[in-house]
Specification:
heterodimer, A: about 230 residues, alpha/beta, 6-stranded mixed β-sheet, about 35% helix, globular, B: about 500 residues, mainly alpha, 22 helices, about 70% helix
Chain lengths: ~230, ~500
């Protein structure tokens, strides 16, 4: 599904990302871990064509991302709060995203029913603008919005951060369900090794922009990762 | 302790992301400041001879004193709209061992450094010096007079502070005071009791009883304390933590659905305008500027320069277009990366902006039809200007938008707010206003009024016919500038 070729990103002579080759097959649940500044967000921003690669390129479904926009209809993402429109209510935001992805109001409404648990009654019908929601609640909105329109590639940057424990568990369930669906490729980054191990069927660790580990999770994986990051 | 605050202020100034980028703007504001200082200096020197000329029989100082109250009220109104109050980010200071009082004193004293407090000195001091020189009056009593004037100016500074802080979320609390002012105005108008003369007389007593100066000084102190206690009671972050009670507006503008593909964006733009302070105020300003023509059309000195009316026509029908269009796409800056990652064709996004501006031009053109009172020629010219705006200026503005890379905070007032303003905003004014004026003038000189009007309208029509083609080109330009914009919009300005 996603292929990375000789991808580098350099800011003022400092290389922040350098991935020679990476292939993410369709249907994989791909977990990206790494310390601050390891290049996780940079990689995701390149995947969404929000920044330009210094060298190399990424293709998604054989479409080169930085030269062709055709990847947009089947890709969705939640990176940070700059993906939310502050002066809309959550419902309006979902409808807007739905409209962009060819869903009408009824489609969106029936889709949202599935996430009532996840929202925990704090999101819908609260008559609040997104800008007035707490960090955790606005994150819930962003994550669910990224699932609208049956995307084939879903990119979530740090989805677990700022969420309360209950919501984290519910989110893990949602991601696992998506991971079981073989038509959806999901990319998740996190600082939390355990969460990542639980939801992914492949884990890649970045350090200073380079891939240092590439694992298929087993019972030993968490220990292995902990040992690596402790060193 | 104050040393620390000044240090923090200085760092926040020199380390803000925008410093250096805004040199052009700073220079412009600098020129404006010098201009006002010179203008006020001129006024200060001229007051004495002017008063002598217009009120030859009266004592100059009495006349001036009678105007003091009116001046102060005008200054208050002006400050209320234009002056930005000093802000200090209290959140990081709340938990460090600094006395709250210190911080509040600092904020209040900092407001004294405002340019608005410097300007009146340029009137008061020159007038005082001229007066001493001409009237051979006592230097001491004049110094007392000048000092009193300045104390009154500072009172205005703190009254404004109080108005803005205390009454912005409690407009009703202002009514009794407003009523008092209205009664006084009425009494003055019907010559029952002249508060301005009364006030003037009181100031006049200073000459004989200089110690009376203590009364305004005490008043100043009182205002300062009032401000102080008012701020102190608010020195908590409750206001920012507390869930806002603001009811959401239910209007979902579903009627725009009929506009087809651009409907979702149009809906979004209407919500943007309706629910955010800065764009909303822009709309009200546009209605206000409709009256712009009243300044020019009846004025005989402009009758020989009809080219000037082109300027007025472009302005009246295009004021919303200019105010809104110059910040495309910075209005969407806070979520621009989402827009760029989403399944959005750029052309549709831009078309919706163009549609909105076109709609505003049509509405303003209709609202401006009563100007037919000043002649059918004015009406025709305005309609031609509207067409020109739709056909040419809308694409020009959107094209210029591709050079925007400064973030805008939607919730700030637009008055004296230069956030998001860069060279593009100044440069775009030239083609927007000057070119139609020159074209019109050329055709007017070589042919006549009617042909000039028709030319302008035709140019607009050509633009409308080519709209699709132009938008295509502009969308390409936007795609090219995409990364620069995303990066620019991420920079938070302090």
């Amino acid at each position: 599904m996603i292929q990375v070729q000789n991808l580098t990103k350099t800011y003022n002579g400092t290389t922040v990302l350098n991935i020679e080759h990476l292939e993410i097959p369709k249907g994989q649940s791909f977990g990206l871990v790494g310390n601050n500044g390891a290049g996780k967000t940079t990689f995701f921003s390149l995947l969404l064509d929000l920044i330009q690669p210094t060298t190399g390129f990424i293709t998604s479904n054989s479409i080169q991302i930085n030269t062709n926009e055709k990847w947009k209809p089947f890709t969705s993402a939640f990176i940070d709060e700059s993906f939310l429109i502050g002066y809309l209510t959550p419902e309006e935001y979902f409808y807007f995203i739905g409209e962009l992805r060819g869903w009408n109001k009824a489609d969106v409404d029936s889709f949202l029913v599935k996430y009532e648990d996840f929202f925990n009654g704090e999101i819908l019908k609260n008559k609040k603008y997104l800008r007035d929601l707490s960090k955790g609640n606005s994150k819930k909105v962003g994550i669910v919005a990224a699932l609208i329109g049956e995307p084939e590639v879903i990119i979530l940057d740090e989805p677990f951060a700022n969420l309360d424990p209950t919501t984290q568990i519910r989110l893990k369930k949602i991601i696992k369900e998506l991971a079981d669906d073989n038509s959806v490729t999901i990319l998740v980054s996190s600082h939390d090794l355990q969460h990542t191990v639980e939801v992914s069927n492949r884990i890649v660790a970045l350090q200073k922009g380079e891939i240092v580990l590439d694992l298929i999770p087993s019972s030993e994986t968490l220990k292995e990762l902990e040992a690596f990051f402790a060193a | 302790m104050f040393k620390h605050f000044i240090n923090l202020e200085w760092k926040s100034f020199i380390r803000s992301a925008s410093v250096g980028k805004n040199i052009g703007l700073k220079i412009f504001l600098g020129f404006l400041a010098v201009y006002f200082m010179l203008a006020f200096l001129g006024l200060g020197v001229a007051i004495y001879p002017l008063t002598k000329e217009f009120f030859p029989k009266q004592e100059v100082l009495n006349v001036v004193n009678n105007f003091v109250l009116i001046w102060l009220i005008l200054e208050l109104i002006f400050r209320f709209f234009m002056q930005t109050l000093p802000v200090i980010n209290i959140k990081p200071l709340l938990i460090v061992p600094i006395k709250k009082e210190k911080v509040i004193h600092f904020v209040l004293l900092k407001s004294l450094t405002s340019f608005y407090n410097l300007l009146p000195l340029f009137i008061i001091i020159p007038f005082g010096i001229v007066y001493i020189y001409k009237e051979n009056s006592s230097i001491f009593s004049m110094i007392v007079w000048m000092a009193t004037m300045y104390i009154l100016v500072l009172c205005i500074n703190y009254i404004n502070f109080l108005l803005k802080k205390k009454f912005t979320d409690n407009i009703k609390g202002l009514f009794p005071y407003l009523l008092l002012v209205l009664i006084l105005v009425a009494l003055e108008y019907f010559s029952v009791f002249s508060i301005t003369k009364f006030f003037g007389n009181q100031i006049g007593y200073l000459e004989f009883y200089p110690f009376l100066m203590l009364i305004p000084a005490a008043f100043l102190f009182g205002l300062y304390s009032w401000n102080f206690y008012n701020l102190k009671s608010r020195f908590y972050i409750d206001n920012s933590i507390q869930a806002k009670k603001q009811e959401v507006s239910n209007s979902d503008f579903s009627w725009v659905k009929r506009f087809g593909k651009i409907a979702p964006f149009l809906q979004l733009d209407l919500k943007l305008i309706w629910r955010n302070k800065r764009p909303k105020t822009t709309v009200w300003l546009s209605l206000f500027f409709l009256c712009y023509g009243l300044i020019f059309y009846p004025n005989p000195s402009y009758q020989d320069m009809p080219a000037f009316f082109v300027f007025v026509g472009i302005f009246i029908t295009g004021i919303f277009m200019i105010n809104f269009g110059q910040f495309i796409p910075a209005w969407d800056s806070s979520y621009y990366s989402m827009m760029m990652a989403q399944n959005i064709p750029l052309k549709q996004y831009l078309n919706s902006k163009a549609g909105l501006m076109t709609f505003s031009i049509i509405v303003l053109a209709i609202l401006s039809t009563p100007y037919v009172y000043f002649g059918i020629n004015i009406l025709l010219l305005n309609l031609a200007c509207a067409l020109y705006n739709i056909g040419i200026n809308v694409p020009v503005l959107i094209f210029a938008g591709s050079f925007n890379k400064k973030r805008i905070d939607l919730e700030k007032s637009p008055f004296m707010n230069y956030q998001g303003t860069g060279a593009a905003q100044w440069l775009v004014g030239i083609p927007l206003l000057l070119i139609p004026l020159l074209i019109w003038y050329a055709f007017y000189k070589f042919f006549n009024y009617d042909i000039a009007v028709i030319t302008l309208a035709l140019l607009g029509l050509i633009g409308i016919v080519l709209r699709n083609f132009l938008m295509e080109k502009i969308a390409k330009q936007f795609a090219k500038k995409k990364y620069e914009m995303i990066n620019g919009f991420k920079q938070q300005e302090s």
